[in-house]
Amino acid sequence: MARRVAIDWPERVAGLVLEASPTTLKGDAQLEAFVQSTVLNLVDPIGHAFARRFVVDTSTDLIGEEIVERLVEELLKVPTRVWKETMSGLMRYDDLDELDLILAPTLLIWGDSDPLVGLEMQKDLVRAIPNATLSRYPGIGHTPRWEDPTRFAKEVGAFVRRSNQRESA
Fold it and tell me: Quick one: which of 24, 32, 27, 28 has its CA closest to 96?
């Protein structure tokens, strides 16, 4: 995780971009229910319906059908053990007490129609990370990079340029 790297090796991180980053998912009832009812029951290969539902349920209608299908095809390549290990790890991870150790300028990118990560989590991260700013994407879901790739790329590019200028100053 990018946050972990920024906490453990701050001298190696010039800037940090977090997209739809939660505070923590530890104890999150919605995620626990999803993992218990769906992810733990996955068998290889995962089904097309599961992969499609995962993409569609975390996005808005702004994401095109061609992109949805491309993402579904990529998700179908992920073995169930990876889904299970990833979700299990997310349910245990909590770095909230260490976020003040992130020294790098941090850009939080968040879609205000995100069904998984809410505004309060973003506000908590802005308060906890010393040099964090929030960029809000109106009408966008959990994946701004897919739903508004042009804005996302421009914003990240500008952030990297600013971070590089700070580093060389």
Answer: 24
